[in-house]
Amino acid sequence: MLFKGKYRIKSTRLKGYNYGSNGYYYVTICTKDRCHYFGEIINHKMIYNRVGYLAIKFWREIPKHFKYVEMDAFIVMPNHVHGVIRIRGNNAVVETLHCNISTKTLFSYVSPKKHSLSVIIRSYKSICSKTINHSFPATNFKWQSLFYDEIIKNEQHLNNVRKYIKNNPLKWGKDE
């Protein structure tokens, strides 16, 4: 896809879906170039370093800043974070794009909306980056610019994601 003569990565978001809607979302956030900032896997168990503990701390604090969010299963791995976020009781209306509009107006629509999953993840990534780089400047910590998400469709899907998250360290040698 070209925008102003430059290639852009196509969005992984479900077109027309309101990512501020109540429900469960499975997200994966990777570090830039998949650098191992958070610790290491030893004997199929994640061993966190100080940067990893900061990533955990800020993940757990998300509901303090977004009252309509509940955290479910999650794990911080050496170079990524997997987690289930539940948006609940969010009465805000998040606009979706359904028509052809000017480029100027387009940016207001494609920017993350106030009560959306993108704002939650952007805030998490921001506090992690600022704190880690302030506390441990030699790490030169960076996230990958995008994140992966799945809308969890039902209880079985949710249970499969929880199981995947729990077993992620066991699969590290194959998954790295």
Describe this structure as you would to a colleague.
The protein is an alpha+beta fold and 176 residues long. 34% of the residues lie in helices and 23% in strands. The protein contains six helices and eight strands; from the N terminus they run βββββααββααβαα. It is globular. The protein starts with a strand and ends with a helix. The model is unreliable at 93-99 and 102-112 (pLDDT under 50).
Describe the structure in brief:
With 176 residues, this protein is α+β, with helices and mostly antiparallel strands.
Low-confidence stretches: 93-99, 102-112
Mean pLDDT: 84
- Binned, the helix content reads 25-40%
Rg computed from alpha carbons, rounded to a whole number of angstroms: 17 Å
Question: N-to-C terminal Cα separation, in Å?
Answer: 29 Å
The helix-strand sequence is EEEEEHHEEHHEHH
Largest beta sheet: strand ordering: 6-7-3-8
Give the strand tally.
8
Q: Structural class from helices and strands?
A: alpha+beta
Beta strand % = 15-25%
The geometry reads as: globular
Tell me the number of helical segments per DSSP (H or I, 4 or more residues long).
6
Largest sheet: 4 strands, antiparallel
Task: Provide the fold topology.
Blueprint: E1 2-3, E2 6-7, E3 23-30, E4 39-42, E5 45-48, H1 50-60, H2 62-65, E6 69-76, E7 80-87, H3 103-110, H4 117-135, E8 148-151, H5 155-167, H6 172-175
Antiparallel strand pairs: 1-2, 3-7, 3-8, 4-5, 6-7
Helix pairs in contact: 1-4
